[in-house]
Amino acid sequence: xRVLVTNxxxxxxxxxxxxxxxxxxLGWDVLVAAPAExxxxxxxxxASHSGRGRIAIERRQTEGFEALAVAGHPALISFVACxxxxxxRPDLVLSGVNLGANTSTGILHSGTxxxxxxxxxxxxxxxxxxxDVAWDGTTPLWDTATDVARAVLPxxxxxxxxxxxxxxxxxxxxVRGIEWASIAPSSPYEVQFEMNGDELKVRGAKTGLEPVxxxxxxxxxxxxxxxxxxxxxxxxxxxxxxxxxxPA
Length: 248
Hints:
By secondary structure, the chain is α/β, with parallel strands linked by helices. Helices cover about 20% and strands about 30% of the residues. The chain has five helices and eleven strands, in the order βαβββαβαβαββββαβ. Strand 1, helix 1 and strand 2 (about 30-35) form a beta-alpha-beta unit.
């Protein structure tokens, strides 16, 4: 099984190599290729940092993995890989582990999710993995995210080609279970804008809205990992695996 691991937090993110180790622990052949710079919020953009034409690539050996630092957005990296641009076409694309959840309307803008979708529309199954950690200095529990991802990956590998899943994991030492989740109709965060002369300041704030039951936002709030099908998949194959009893 050949796997591409990418992200939108950039080539130096610890979450990237945590996810690569999770895939490698299953005996899979892993290639790491990620943006040379942070590319959060780029969605399914296939732009490069330098515009059209040549795209700079720096080859690295990092934490035991062959790694490519690519001057482009994550969806571009996924697109190139699925077209055989980095060698043999991958069987799976994994994107993450993202620093922060990707839920509700946020999946439209997420470069993490965008990379997974870019693979799916080209016939390669993929999963985006995100850790619901606050941007307030809280320590990310990468191992929690990768333990959950490792439980889901064998199932993903057996699903039909072009399956795309979005996995969100709470930033807690213990996860109560893994649940199939729908997409929340509204985000728990809102973007606020403030003009200061010729400068636009942007920040996020909690909305205070109650989570809708059965959505990723609600499951995360209750300490569950949330698994959402985004493309070409039904919940059927996972019955029995994804239950509140995980981990045993």
